[in-house]
């Protein structure tokens, strides 16, 4: 099927309102962990459950890099880092990288593919799904295109070859996703410019509907 048929729908997607709910209990095991502990106490000070939107994360990231990083994680992994799988192993590793990531995201608004690959190689506990979220919320460009979230669900849509516009990405897999990410961003940017919607709206459309549509 072709995305052209859905362009009017995509234009209406309220991507900044896209929200998730997360609970204090998910993160309480790390409440004494330095900067995250401070963020945890401030965030859950009055309510054990919070709802955080993309717009919230953008706003927080624009004011404070460290809080922006933690907000990205709460939004992106509301049930626990990497959805709670191996959280006790991976989240402490991630927390060790926060200072480095804070400096990187505060100072670099354009990165190359090689620099992205180096970050993934250097930072333990961080995969492309997490890094793409951080790059997205900090408005970083990869090569010449704005970064977008690139998680397992998006990769599944591309792999299933649902839309002809993404045919060139049909061979994407978990092991080669870094190589295809720049091409994905380029295609999203070109389609968005052509049809008059935002790349963010296209990415969220793929996330919400990509594997749940059938040609009639």
Topology:
Blueprint: H1 7-11, E1 19-23, H2 24-27, H3 34-43, E2 49-53, H4 54-63, H5 65-76, H6 87-95, H7 98-107, E3 110-111, H8 113-122, H9 128-137, E4 141-142, E5 145-146, H10 152-159, H11 177-195, H12 199-209
Parallel strand pairs: 3-4
Antiparallel strand pairs: 1-2, 4-5
Helix pairs in contact: 4-5, 5-9
Write up this protein.
The relative contact order is 0.14. Strands 3-4-5 form a 3-stranded mixed β-sheet. Strands 1-2 form a two-stranded antiparallel ribbon. It is globular. α5 packs across α9 (128-137). It is mainly α. β4 (141-142) and β5 (145-146) form a beta hairpin. It has helices at residues 7-11, 24-27, 34-43, 54-63, 65-76, 87-95, 98-107, 113-122, 128-137, 152-159, 177-195, 199-209; strands at 19-23, 49-53, 110-111, 141-142, 145-146. It has 12 helices and 5 strands.
Please give the order of strands in the largest beta sheet: 3-4-5
Structural class of the secondary structure composition?
A: mainly alpha
Uncertain runs: none
Give me the count of strands.
5
**In angstroms, what is the radius of gyration?**
17 Å
Pfam family, one: OGG
Can you give keywords for this protein?
two-stranded antiparallel ribbon; mainly alpha; three-stranded mixed β-sheet; globular
Question: In summary, what is this structure?
Answer:
The protein is mostly helical and 216 residues long. The chain is 55% helix and 7% strand. The chain has helices at 7-11, 24-27, 34-43, 54-63, 65-76, 87-95, 98-107, 113-122, 128-137, 152-159, 177-195, 199-209; strands spanning 19-23, 49-53, 110-111, 141-142, 145-146.
């Amino acid at each position: 099927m072709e995305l052209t048929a859905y362009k009017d729908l995509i234009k209406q997607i309220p991507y900044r309102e896209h929200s998730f709910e997360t609970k204090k209990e998910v993160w309480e095991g790390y409440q004494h962990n330095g900067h995250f502990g401070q963020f945890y106490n401030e965030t859950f000070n009055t309510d054990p459950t919070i709802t955080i939107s993309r717009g919230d994360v953008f706003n927080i990231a624009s004011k404070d890099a460290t809080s922006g990083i933690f907000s990205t994680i709460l939004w992106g992994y509301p049930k626990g880092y990497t959805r709670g799988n191996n959280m006790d192993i991976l989240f402490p590793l991630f927390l060790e990288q926060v200072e480095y990531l804070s400096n990187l995201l505060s100072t670099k608004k354009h990165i190359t593919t090689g620099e992205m690959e180096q970050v993934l190689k250097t930072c333990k506990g961080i995969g492309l799904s997490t890094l793409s979220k951080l790059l997205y919320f900090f408005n970083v460009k990869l090569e010449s295109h704005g970064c977008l979230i690139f998680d397992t669900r998006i990769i599944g849509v591309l792999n299933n070859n649902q839309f002809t516009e993404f045919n060139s990405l049909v061979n994407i897999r978990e092991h080669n996703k870094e190589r295809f990410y720049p091409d994905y961003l380029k295609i999203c940017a070109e389609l968005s410019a052509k049809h008059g919607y935002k790349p963010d709206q296209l990415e969220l459309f793929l996330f919400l509907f990509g594997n749940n549509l059938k040609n009639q």
